Amino acid sequence: MSWLVQVKFWMLLTLTIPSTICSILIFIYFYRQRRKISIYHHLTLVLIIGSFLQLTINFPFIMAYYHRGKVIPASSSFCLWWNWWEYSINGLLLFVMAWGSVERHILIFHRAALVTRRNQLLFHILPMAIACFYPGIFYFTVMILNTCTNQWNYDAIFCQIPCYLATQPALATYDFIENVAFPVFAIAIANGSLIFRIVWQKRRHQIGWRRQYKLTRQLVLVAVVYMAFWFPLTINGLITTFAPTSILISIQVNYFFFLVFMVPSLLPFTLLACLSNFTKTIFKKQPRFIVPIP
């Protein structure tokens, strides 16, 4: 399998560098547009921050493993932190996108519901905060506070798996269904129904459907990235959860788990495509003032 490891290493390296640069450009864009940031931009901001954290903090350790063939540094505390970080950030990106997909229905079809500060707090800020902090709290509880004993393997990526996945099947099943399958299907259903509603609006020639189409297209582009790389893992994971076979488990571990790394790698490019006037904002020339010589 050494050739596969090398392919994974070069894929990540090839994508990580331009993705990181793209993320930085998006941060610059929002800094220059900071007075124009609205509630519609919050999902993009949270997603780009999450993907940037993966690219700069997690991916170097993953690439070091693929390059050296072993975990560096090889310590129990690092393995515990590494697993907590990987699961937490992936969960954050999933739940934020899931809520953002549901919330887009509100932003497009029921904008008046988010006019007041109270409603923005209840139906925008609070759900987004829960989506951000829930995964980290959950995995802190099941990984770090759990009393089971981890048997780390420093020759396996992420040092194998946390002990609760191997010794506590009920908790492992809940984790996969609640924290992977549920948000993935929520993203698919929310975006599918959003497309249907926009098409229905167009067929009825209702006013404002062009703006709705633009907001929908931006979200659907991001959802396609999620579906392309999370859906195979989710479907195969559901099958292996209830009817495991050695072949499906091998495919899940060697191929589908790696596909998840593509999400933070490709998100910056997808999010960039959703930003209006990006080139003009980033590369605009500063005005020059001619000061007369006295």
UniProtKB/TrEMBL annotation:
Gene3D superfamilies: Rhodopsin 7-helix transmembrane proteins (1.20.1070.10). Residues 22-271 form the G-protein coupled receptors family 1 profile domain. One of its GO terms (molecular function) is G protein-coupled receptor activity. It is found in: Membrane. Keywords: Membrane, Transmembrane, Transmembrane helix. It comes from the Eukaryota. The keyword Transmembrane helix applies. The keyword Chloroplast does not apply. Its main location: membrane. Coiled coil: none annotated. GO terms for cellular component: membrane. InterPro entries: GPCR_Rhodpsn, GPCR_Rhodpsn_7TM. The chain crosses the membrane at residues 12-31, 43-67, 87-109, 121-145, 180-199, 219-243, 255-278. SUPFAM superfamilies: Family A G protein-coupled receptor-like (SSF81321). This is G-protein coupled receptors family 1 profile domain-containing protein. It comes from Rotaria magnacalcarata.
